[in-house]
Specification:
This protein is mostly helical. 57% of the residues lie in helices and 0% in strands.
């Protein structure tokens, strides 16, 4: 039972890291592109494609996101929550003797 619990918590930490990275990308570069639209925007423009550029446009170097992030207030909220999650699941919590629980991670 203990090993199952530890594995569940470890897996939840890994999922939380993936989610945190995805939310950070959302705050920086906006939502994901459709699979058929994936690619860097400057290459699309060179080849004659149309790129939608919003007011806060920031080109995604990976070409996976639209480059149109949410407004600054929403981005700050997203980044604040990502920081809080990463602090909670950080490995230093072991040294600080903070017990992670599955309900708090998920």
């Amino acid at each position: 039972e203990l090993i199952d619990s530890l594995v569940d918590i470890h897996n939840a930490r890994l999922r939380s890291c993936l989610i945190a990275d995805a939310v950070k990308g959302l705050a920086m570069y906006g939502v994901m592109k459709r699979p058929e639209d994936v690619g860097t925007d400057h290459v699309k423009e060179i080849t004659g494609g149309n790129v939608e550029r919003g007011d806060n446009y920031v080109e995604d170097p990976s070409g996976l996101r639209t480059g149109n992030p949410p407004d600054e207030k929403m981005a700050e909220i997203l980044n604040r929550e990502v920081r809080a999650l990463k602090e909670y699941i950080h490995k230093n919590q072991v040294q600080n003797q903070v017990a992670l629980t599955l309900p708090e991670i998920t």
